[in-house]
Amino acid sequence: MQRVQQLRPLLPKGHVSYYKDQILVTKGEGQFLFDQNGKKYLDFFGGIVTVSVGHCHPKVNAALHEQSKKLWHTTSIYHTEPIYEYAQKLTAKFPDPLKVVYLVNSGSEANDLALALARNYTGRFDVISMRNGYHGMTQTVLGATNLGNWKPVYPHGFNIFKSLNADPYRGIFGGDKCRDSPCQVRNRKCACSPGKCEAADKYIEQFDEMLLHDFSHSSGPAAFLIESIQGVGGTVQYPKGYLARAYKSIQSRGGLAIADEVQTGFGRLGSHFWGFESQSAMPDIVTMAKGIGNGFPLGAVVTTKEIADAFNRSLYFNTYGGNPLASAVGKAVLEVIEEEKLQENSANVGDYFLKQLDSLSESAIGDVRGKGLMIGVELIDEQGKPLAAAKTAAIFEDTKNKGLLIGKGGIHGNVLRIKPPMCITKKDVDFAVDVISKSIKQFK
Ligand code: PMP
């Protein structure tokens, strides 16, 4: 604590600090973190959904170590074996025609490049992103990040239009019975007739209206950039069928669908490797980061040959993108997900987790949602309004004191975000559910 207090002034004030009583993290192992006093924490946030296969995984460590003895860096002007091996392994995870990969260093950079690809291919400039979505902090993608009122006054990503947030819990068209999956959570069996969801209908109607009216004469937007499930926004799942229909709407008008899989990708949702697949939607461009490298700086954009070829008329250069170390790590992460069946674990343990959370009787739990190991618990007060930020912060601080690290988010800061490394067990879940329940009881 003392050391954190001493060193804190060296970082800018705006640097996000999660806790009132900060911890100094010194070690990570699997799903656990340790502080300087040796206190052990169950890490159910994984550095914001980044540690996908567990802290310091031996196989990933070994891959990094082995590669570090051979070659660190060349810049993409020379070709290296690791980038090809990785590109082959990564693109094998995608359906046709998504088979060309650009390697970058972060999620913001991936989305930045995705917008450039879309604008170049379509010859259009306007873009749509969804309210409450998060896509990064470079100046361009900041314009597509639509959360809160903290954005800077300097110009950022202009000509980015905002679609309605298709949120079945707080959104204007309701639809909490029509959530994509799993509908059984909180007994919310979908009440709509098969293949038809009223909330999705209304949000799509509005989306189509927007496409018709908001863009200059015949040229519509270049792209719709959207997370497959909103992450920072508080694990918001769209009403059933929304994503696939919105993709089709934009694609039928000559624009591209860009799936931001920075949080939802790599098997986290359990049923599918990618979030868009879990909603039967087919994008033109997919962006990835975080879990792709288990904490190593790595991001990627996967697209079609046609879209990539069109980009060849301009130069694309990235000093570190696809460096041998990152490529070796990325490949090892994919191997671990397969070998340790972590996607299956996300499905099984995630399902168990959602049901355990759902069975809690705390009145402050307004909503339990998510899929696999991407989970949100929305906290409310007696009037059903978002729980006061101070109370949520107290709950959050208390879970940490009890040895459990989780995240928070949502526009009102009242959603507990739970996205652990995918190697967790049901025993870990039992511990976490017990802590969450006790902390809510004590501080709501
Ligand atoms: N997209 C999503 C969905 C994210 O959650 C984030 C990071 N929170 C980003 C993009 C940006 O990633 P990075 O911080 O690596 O730039």
From TrEMBL:
Pfam families: Aminotran_3. It is found in: Mitochondrion. The keyword Transferase applies. One of its GO terms (cellular component) is mitochondrion. Keywords: Aminotransferase, Mitochondrion, Pyridoxal phosphate, Transferase, Transit peptide. SUPFAM superfamilies: PLP-dependent transferases (SSF53383). One of its GO terms (biological process) is L-alanine catabolic process, by transamination. Its main location: mitochondrion. InterPro entries: Aminotrans_3 (IPR005814), PyrdxlP-dep_Trfase (IPR015424), PyrdxlP-dep_Trfase_major (IPR015421), PyrdxlP-dep_Trfase_small (IPR015422). Its cofactor is pyridoxal 5'-phosphate. Its EC number is 2.6.1.18, 2.6.1.40, 2.6.1.44. One of its GO terms (molecular function) is alanine-glyoxylate transaminase activity. It catalyses: 2-oxohexanoate + N(omega),N(omega)-dimethyl-L-arginine = L-2-aminohexanoate + 5-(3,3-dimethylguanidino)-2-oxopentanoate; N(omega),N(omega)-dimethyl-L-arginine + oxaloacetate = 5-(3,3-dimethylguanidino)-2-oxopentanoate + L-aspartate; (2S)-2-aminobutanoate + glyoxylate = 2-oxobutanoate + glycine; N(omega)-methyl-L-arginine + glyoxylate = 5-(3-methylguanidino)-2-oxopentanoate + glycine. Belongs to the class-III pyridoxal-phosphate-dependent aminotransferase family. Homotetramer. Multifunctional aminotransferase with a broad substrate specificity. Catalyzes the conversion of glyoxylate to glycine using alanine as the amino donor. Catalyzes metabolism of not L- but the D-isomer of D-beta-aminoisobutyric acid to generate 2-methyl-3-oxopropanoate and alanine. Catalyzes the transfer of the amino group from beta-alanine to pyruvate to yield L-alanine and 3-oxopropanoate. Can metabolize NG-monomethyl-L-arginine (NMMA), asymmetric NG,NG-dimethyl-L-arginine (ADMA) and symmetric NG,N'G-dimethyl-L-arginine (SDMA). This is Alanine--glyoxylate aminotransferase 2, mitochondrial. It comes from Caenorhabditis angaria.
